[in-house]
Amino acid sequence: THAQAVAERDAALHAERAESASLRVRLAHAESVGDQLRGALMAMERSTSWRLTAPMRWVMSRLRGR
User: Of 2, 16, 31, 44, which alpha carbon lies 20 to 30 A from 52's?
Assistant: First the structure.
């Protein structure tokens, strides 16, 4: 019936919106984690502690030069 078709369409639309919202939340979380990692790497690059950061700077410079 028409009412059943409308109800099914509404249920499908609701499920699609819920999935979209879930994906947006996951994307925001991934972006946040990426920002934190970038910040940590930048802090490590700027660090003046030679023993800790010189090897990491060397690796990072090689990765950038690829």
Answer: 31
